Amino acid sequence: MRGEDGIETRTFDRVAEFVLDTRSDDIPAPTRERAALLLLDTLGIAAASAPMEAGRIARDTAARIHGAGADDAAARMLFDGRRVSLPGAVYAAATQVDNLDGHDGYNPTKGHIGVVAAPTLVALAGLRPALSGPDALAALIIGYEVAGRAALSLHASVSDYHTSGAWNALGVAAMAARMRGLTRDQLREALGIAEYHGPRSQMMREIAHPTMLHDGSGWGALAGMSAAILAEAGFAGAPAITVEAPEAAPHWADLGRFWQIEHQYIKPYPICRWAHAAIDAARELQVAHGFDAGQIEEIRIRSFDNAVALWSGMPETTSKAQYALPFPVAVMLVHGRIGLEHISGAALNDPAVARLVQRTTLATEPRHEARFPDGRWADVEIVLDDGQMLRSGDTHARGGPERPFSATDIVAKFMEFAAPVLGGARASAIRDATLALTPAESRFSDLARHLHETP
Predict the structure, then answer these.
(1) β partners of residue 330
(2) Which CATH number is associated with domain 9-268+429-448?
(3) Distance between CA atoms of residues 105 and 265, nearest Å
(4) What's the whole-number mean pLDDT along residues 278-296?
């Protein structure tokens, strides 16, 4: 059905029913189990990023300019504890997570959802102390499903490549509408406001000049939560084009049948996903052939256009280190892993890494470009000092549906990132409480009590 303005209202009806009426037991059990693992993964990155400069600035700024007012629109900040407005809380946490690029993503969206969905759940759950684990996971899943389809719709309808904040604002608005009990009309206004004010920031501008802006997720979260609160108060917004335009309908047709959340990738490294295929290709060559970094004379990386556009020299900042290509490949070859300690401080001047960066060449490979964004492919050649040429062949990044991680892998990653900051006991408590959210009798508050104190 179309209104007088040509808007397709049937799609909104489908979205509204999904957002407001879906029960937790309408969602397949494996989907809820996957949601718990993704929540755990994002909380691990949130913990690890808490001491980082960008996260500290975001939280301090939220405390300064997004102070708590009414009790029904306030929350404690994640891994901080100070009380601010709901929009301020999700802004701070999403900005914090976004600045340690180790959180989940979804290939078709060319972006990330958990970075806003997990902070939104934690913030809103503070106002619902009796929230069950399954209901919490259902809200999280709805955020993923709405945001992911808004992303596909936006990418298909505009020429520029906008950051995740541009579309994950709608996922945040949908979660808030569900958890705050908004009506269908209020949900429609919230989605429209969120889309209108969501940051249409240009992703490739950030790739060319990496900074703390990252993927725009903090401002997307701020816009989405603010939109829901405005709609709840009666503020009107134009219908969301990414939902209700006739050409958007195909992107929403499988809502409630195909669960995008099950197809998110998990990052083994806190580095832009575009670099992961090359990192994995180099890593696997080194494991197979047993050479050390000092034997390497030359590295040749071929990948897709966006990967080759990543920072090509030695980075001066953590942001540039995370949006680089030769640098993380060199770190992997020198150190055998990539942790937070390798992308900050003195590690940015590591002479062994710098030597390999200087010996790396990049090229776009048409066959890898043809498979982007649905795949993240690269191939690597390494020339050793004895003249031996080692070739990886085409390699896909690990951690997604193409090369999935097990639940054990995801839990191990959480502990690797969270335990050094939180301590083993607190990290273990968060792990156990998150993985225990699926039974009907579970309560989100059993997890929430571990999430707000400063590490």
Answers:
(1) none
(2) 1.10.4100.10
(3) 5
(4) 97
